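QA checklist item 7 of 12: single-chain prediction sanity check.
[x] sequence parsed
[x] length recorded as 327
[x] structure emitted
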Amino acid sequence: MTRLGLALAVVASVCIITAPVVAQRGDGVAQRGGGRGGRGADTGPLTAKPGVKIAGDFDKVKILEPGAATPRTRDGHPDLSGRYYPNHAGRMLQGAYRIPEPIMRQFDPEKTPQENPVFRPDAVEKYQHPTPYGTCPPGGTPTSITTQATEHGPLEIVQVPGRVWLLTEFPQTIRMVPTDGRPHPPDPDTSFNGDSVGRWEGDTLVIDTVAIDTRMRNISVGRTGDANAWLHSEKEHVIERFSRPSKNYLMYQLTVEDPEVLVKPFVSAPHAWTLAQDPNDVWTEYICSANEEPDVYKNLDQKTKEEYEKSGRDAATQSGRQGGRGR
């Protein structure tokens, strides 16, 4: 291990995250490859030796069937209420186990290709910066939802007449969105969640958000992971589309407009989320404590600090220069 790797391993060991050991019965939370249950190397489906039980029954994971017809509210709109996971299994998945890719991924790039954000050349240095190591990104729009691509956590939706709540465990976020047709206020207050208003377009709930705090990084908006995070300008405009084609599936599609940062709006592929199948799947507390031992990092020699920060900036810059499709 290099001196840099050893130093960062020491820092990582004291970045304390208190998380539920159980998200669903028997479902452990691993830290490997980024985020809770971060993706490890995929070398094929998980199989167990005869007589050996796989923790969490990850060897039995399969693609969830669509289920019954879309539930609806009294006013005829799809009822989006439920607790959903960013995969095709209807449960939290351990990235450390080799779950088949069609189950883990939220979209098939061969069927629904997604073009990555195209950044203005003069915006790369100013806006493309990875999340600083050892910090906890705040929840906000749209990151609290999109970052689940690596955090593997749930999105819970509570829908009542005239409003919808969007809840995520980590980053812990509560968004209340009116759906009664009201417009944005003339001068909305800036916040990490931004000012959101919702409307129905047929069976799709469209949430329009402006006034998002410029300190809010877009994480996994396009390429996944904190290394590909990017900041935005005051002109950022986020449009989210939620639909429920069947009982077990929720579809989420994102558009981000920001003329100061992007050459053109970023439009994601439709991402699949699946309804939690375990009746014992309950809300749990997941807190990032942003490094309880800051003196460890403070006491690293300056050269090591500079090498780490430079590697993060270089990774972000390189991502900005690459084109093509996929994540």
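[x] summary fact logged: The mean pLDDT is 82.
[ ] second reviewer sign-off
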